[in-house]
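Reviewers of the previous submission asked for a worked example of the structure-prediction workflow described in the proposal, so we include one complete record here. The input consisted solely of the amino acid sequence. No template or homolog information was supplied to the procedure at any stage.
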Amino acid sequence: MRLAVIMNLQSPWARETVMHLVDHGCEVHVIDFDTLEASPGYLGSQYDKQSRAIALLRKKVSGVHLLRSGRASELRYLLAARQLRGVCESVRPDLLVTLYGGGSALMAWASGFRPYVVYAVGSDVLLASGLRKRIARFVLDRARLVLANGKYLAERTRQLAPRARVIAHYLGVDTRRFRPIDRPAESHVSGIVCTRGFLSVYNNDAIIRALALIPESAGGYHMTFVSSGPLLPAARALAEQSVADDNRRKFEFLDGATAERLLEIIQGADIYVSMSRSDGTSSSLLEALACGLFPIVSDIPANRDWVETSGRNGFLVPLDDDAALALALATAISNPELRRSAAAHNRRMVQERADIENTTTLLIQHLERAAASYS
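From that input alone, the workflow returned the following C-alpha cells.
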C-alpha cells in the first residue's frame, strides 16, 4: 500500500507510527513544511535533540517532501494545498493520510486529492472553537475515514462531525522498547518524571506547586521535567519562588532530550505525572505504563481509560487542586509497595490494548478498507 502522510517530522509519536507502517510493508512518502528548525512550539525548540531520529526516518521512508511554508500563520495550509496536490500527483498514493486534524486536514481537503484519511489526536478536536470548529467539522465530514486517538476522543469527534465515519484507534507504543529494566536495590529517593511540553494545555506549573506542599516526612524524591516549551522559563522561575531552598535541587529541567535519553529517564523513574487539561490517549502515559511506572494524572476522560478510579494502578487527580495532587504524590513517594503492585498490571494493559505491532496491523486494515471503498 502506498501512502502519502502529512506529519510533523519533529513529532516522536508520528515518526514511530510511520516507521512501523514501513516495517509492515507500506510504501510511505512523508510530507511536512520546510521550516523544521524554525517551527513554533516546544518540539521546534528542541530540534537539535531530534535531528538524529529525523535522519533515521528519512532513510527509512520512500520519500520526504517539504512544502514551502511562506507564512508562519495558519494560512500556510491553504497556500500550500497546490504544492500538496503536486506531490500527490507525483507519488500517486492509494491514500493521503494526515497524522493530525486542524490545518493539516484542511490542507488535505483543499488539495483536491481523494481519498484522504484524518487521524484526530486530541487538541485538534477537543480545543477547536469558533471558526476552527466549523472548519474541522467541514473537513472531517468530507474525509473518507477519521481515526480518533481513543474512545472518548472518538465520541467527541462524532459530536463535532456527525457525518464523518469515525473509528477509535490507539496508535500504541513499542512495548519491546518501552519496558521495565532491572534496577538497583530500592532507593530512598523516588524518581518522578513528567515528559509533557511546557505549554498551557499541559499545566506543568500545577506539578511544581504541588511538590512545594509535600512534607519532608513523605520521603525523598527527584523531579525531572524532560521537555522544552515557551513556558519553561516561567516554570523555572516558579520553582525558584515556591520551592524551599533544600528541595530546589530535587528539580531538574532538561529542556528536551534525545529518544535514547528519554527512554533512559523513563526506565529509571518510579512515578509518572501529568496534569494535562486536555488529551487524547497520551503516548507519554502509555510509554510510562509500559515501563511499569506508577501514574498520577489529571482526572480527564482520556486518562480514565487507563487509570482506575479505585487507585489500584495509579491516581486520578482533579484539575486545579494542588492539595490533592500533593497528597497523591506524597502517597506514591512513601509507598513503594503500592507502586510495585501496579507495575505488572499497567504494563500488561498496554501490551494487550496498545502494543504498536498489533495496532499498526489494525491501522493498515482500516486504511486498506478506506482505499478500497473509494475505488
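The chain has two domains: 2-172+355-374, 189-353. We consider this example representative of the routine output the project will generate in years two and three.
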